[in-house]
Write a structure and sequence with these properties.
Radius of gyration: 16 Å
Strand order of the largest sheet: 3-2-1-4-5-7-6
Structural class: alpha/beta
Strand content: 15-25%
Mean pLDDT: 94
Low-confidence stretches: none
Shape: globular
Largest sheet: 7 strands, mixed
Order of helices and strands: HHEEHEEHEHHEE
Number of helices: 6
Length: 216
């Protein structure tokens, strides 16, 4: 099974978009992901870029009074359509928002000084080169005060749980487009970005991280 599932499983998202919320919703509710999403999304300020926006599961939590503009990016057209529908339903009068279907690794129009906040929830798991992704996010934020906010899932504190994550990862990735056994700490370290905050939940598998560009 492992040899048949590619490192880049992002193409799965178009296939599961319409069922995604119903399939992951119960699990997220049980583990309190709604609270974590709310907490981290409310931290977004200024010109905001949300990467791997998916079906817009964070859209209800934005504190729009603190957001000058919001740009949502995801390479799944099916998911982006759902995300835009949700956002406009939750915030019908908020106008400075964009919904872009593309990879964040491709060229993207940015504010002159970069984004003030880049937000990503559950995005590292879906790309083949996660370190390159973080390098890219670092290049998109304001080099002086920009913040990168991540809510990710990956390896645990415990070897027994990591063994289970490793054994089940190929089937999970094949279905949901997510490699949930990545070593998030190592990826962050190799990115060269500066860690402002790092907190872990759910036996260490859920990572709440704030990063910023490292000053030379």
């Amino acid at each position: 099974m492992a040899s048949k599932v590619p490192a880049d499983v992002s193409d799965r998202y178009d296939k599961i978009a319409r069922d995604f919320d119903s399939e992951v919703g119960i699990t997220e509710k049980i583990y309190g992901y709604g609270w974590l999403r709310s907490w981290i999304t409310k931290e977004a300020t200024g010109n905001v870029l949300e990467v791997s926006a998916g079906t817009g599961r964070n859209s209800a939590y934005y504190n729009l009074k603190n957001c000058k503009s919001i740009t949502l990016v995801d390479q799944s057209r099916e998911m982006m359509e759902i995300a835009e529908e949700k956002f406009r339903k939750n915030h019908p009068t908020y106008k400075p928002c964009r919904f872009i279907t593309q990879s964040v690794l491709d060229s993207l129009n940015t504010p002159p000084e970069g984004f003030d906040t880049v937000l990503q929830t559950m995005g590292i798991c879906s790309v083949a080169d996660s370190v390159h992704l973080l390098h890219r996010l670092g290049s998109l934020v304001n080099p002086h005060h920009g913040r990168i906010l991540l809510l990710e899932h990956g390896k645990s504190y415990y070897d027994w749980l990591n063994s289970w994550l490793d054994s089940s990862a190929p089937s999970h990735a094949d279905r949901y487009g997510c490699w949930w056994n990545k070593d998030i700490g190592r990826i962050v370290e190799e990115s060269g970005l500066e860690v402002v905050t790092m907190k872990r939940y759910h036996l260490g598998t859920t990572w709440w991280i704030e990063l910023k560009p490292r000053k030379n």
